[in-house]
């Protein structure tokens, strides 16, 4: 594995906003001993015409439940919290397949910028300007070429990073590869590694018979991405307890060897209102 060989666990991330069951940020699950806790709002999805993507994004989460004011109040209350918006989607209707690459880049940059700017807000008697902290790239279905995916997504990230209106809200950029999209995200990362902070690999989309199987894939992926361990996060699902059990045991194994910087969870809905998996994983991270 390249880069750092010993890391301190610092980050826990939770996807939220799918469906109507959760109507607030459940800050009761947050462990104060975690250096960074990220809520990831999902999804901002694009409009498609005749099966082709336009790059015109709009939020799918409830703007009432997860409003700019609620983001501001959460971040004022808990200094270790960041809020990120996830771009893409996990359904067949959310496939990455631009009609025209140049138009897609222009539309995507503009529409995502608009979503970010809508979250700028100040609270009463508070001069701090609160807002979103970054974006997460999360397309599970991709029909374009590998190079088109890398070029289009990479260009949008770069433009948002340097845009004077939103650059201050682009502190965090993550990508969320899965087994079927690995080649696309690997190219995206290699072409834009200076702009991407976290690699959130969806281990929960694969089955592992043993912790050794999990560790083997973890090592392969870190080597393939050619990145330091402090950029690579393990994904756990709250939907499949049996499958996640081995992954969590694998996380504990990596933590004991100081090889895991953090974990992300998909998603908050199944574990509400107790949020037991989230609490247990954060305890593991905090004690190491």
UniProtKB/TrEMBL annotation:
Secretion signal span: none
Pfam family, one: Glyco_hydro_18
Biological processes per GO annotation: carbohydrate metabolic process
Domain of life: Eukaryota
InterPro entries on file: Chitinase-like (IPR000677), GH (IPR017853), Glyco_hydro18_cat (IPR001223)
Residue span(s) of domain GH18: 10-288
Protein's name according to its UniProt entry: GH18 domain-containing protein
Annotated organism of origin: Pisum sativum (Garden pea)
């Amino acid at each position: 594995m390249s880069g750092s060989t010993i890391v301190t666990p610092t980050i826990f991330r939770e996807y939220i906003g799918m469906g109507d069951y959760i109507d607030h940020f459940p800050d009761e699950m947050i462990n104060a001993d975690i250096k960074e806790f990220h809520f990831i709002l999902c999804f901002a999805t694009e409009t498609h015409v005749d099966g082709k993507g336009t790059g015109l994004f709009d939020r799918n989460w409830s703007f009432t439940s997860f409003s700019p004011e609620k983001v501001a109040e959460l971040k004022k209350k808990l200094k270790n919290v960041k809020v990120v918006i996830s771009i893409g989607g996990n359904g067949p209707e959310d496939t990455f397949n631009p009609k025209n690459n140049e138009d897609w880049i222009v539309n995507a940059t503009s529409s995502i910028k608009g979503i970010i700017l809508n979250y700028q807000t100040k609270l009463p008697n508070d001069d701090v300007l609160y807002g979103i902290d970054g974006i997460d790239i999360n397309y599970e279905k991709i029909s374009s070429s590998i190079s088109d995916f890398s070029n289009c997504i990479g260009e949008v990230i770069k433009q948002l990073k340097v845009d004077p209106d939103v650059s201050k809200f682009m502190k965090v950029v993550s990508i969320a590869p899965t087994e079927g999209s690995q080649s696309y995200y690997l190219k995206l990362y290699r072409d834009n590694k200076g702009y991407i902070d976290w690699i959130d690999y969806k281990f929960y989309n694969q089955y592992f018979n043993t912790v050794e199987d999990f560790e083997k894939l973890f090592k392969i992926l870190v080597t393939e991405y050619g990145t330091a361990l402090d950029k690579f996060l393990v994904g756990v699902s709250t939907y499949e307890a049996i499958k996640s059990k081995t992954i969590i045991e694998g996380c504990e194994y990596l933590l004991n060897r100081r090889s895991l910087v953090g974990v992300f969870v998909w998603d908050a809905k199944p574990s509400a209102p107790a949020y037991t998996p989230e609490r247990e994983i954060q305890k593991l991270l905090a004690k190491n």
